[in-house]
């Protein structure tokens, strides 16, 4: 009797505790990825049981992974929950995966959040990478090429840039200041819309403007490593960000379907001159419908659509107001090459090397696309982690110095270096079989917008106002909103 009283646990309790321990051990052991025999597992930092590296990644995964990259190298593995995620960060490994082994990495993981994007049919976010996906992509690419020639995107950019200049002058007369991102994002979306819809583009549509101005509701949830994709229970708990993400995608889907239907109603079935691979397009309606659904879902919100282009343009303006001497050098080049009697055109691009170097340096220094959209089965390719350290190719990577992209004479772009930056540091348009189909148009638009704006306007900040250039994590990393921008007209082109 005395012996039984000295034992703190009964046999049943000990058995139950042992069973629970074995169950937890089995769950934890099973949650670890199993490496096939003969293969070596990538290095992996220590992570919490069940949670993995979620707490380590925090709100700024690009910074956390940068620290891991320095310790574990260019190929490492993390876990989000129990899901292993491979992170690649060197140019050679990324090229090996996306180019040399493109068929193995062209798909997307089947993530919960992706199902809300254009009803799960987006070319950028859908897990489908089979023949149907390839056919849709091929059709969208061909249609984009056709529309690019027919719709004259250069003229659209030029007209919209002039409209933006007029809006900024009105804002300076009124409030006396403005938020550059709010203004640029509308203009960029107008260009893409005008190219798709021509004269039928609903520029005055309140619905379209609302979607454009609230695109942050998309990018804040569509980034790599969203916890809701890896912890199913979060789908049933209060999640304001997820609800905004769902609502935004539903609004966009309704707008897209409405626009396609309007084109069906307005379509002139006897319009001559449209040909596909040399043959008349008898079923042009189908092409327009498929093109709009593919092009808009792939570009308008993602890739080289308005978010990427607007973010690039707005970062450029931020660098210009914090470095007025660079703004003056660009304007001096514009005055010397173009003068004040006409607008800049794309044909002027080779004669404006300093402006081109400035754009490349903006891409390099801001690195505003930290990760590619995840590839299947679950891989993250990081352009942020490709940021070189001291003594590397860039020498002084923390300095903003456009001259690094010029030749020694300073009269032309250093092409090998510019090609390297487009591949290595800023995979804005992806690589391999998932490379964005609108890459060329995106680069054109950024260049032409900046050339026209800087030819006619001086951008500045009021004295004493500090500009915050700290990037805010997301699918595309924005700078802090700044409502104190000012613009003064240098001259006017009639």
Automatic annotation (TrEMBL):
It comes from the Eukaryota. It is an enzyme of class 1 (oxidoreductase). SUPFAM superfamilies: Cytochrome P450. Coiled coil: none annotated. Keywords: Endoplasmic reticulum, Heme, Iron, Lipid metabolism, Lyase, Membrane, Metal-binding, Microsome, Monooxygenase, Oxidoreductase, Transmembrane, Transmembrane helix. It is found in: Endoplasmic reticulum membrane; Microsome membrane. The chain crosses the membrane at residues 6-28. Its cofactor is heme. It is a peripheral membrane protein. One of its GO terms (cellular component) is endoplasmic reticulum membrane. Heme binds at residue 436. This is Cytochrome P450 1A. It comes from Colobus angolensis palliatus (Peters' Angolan colobus).
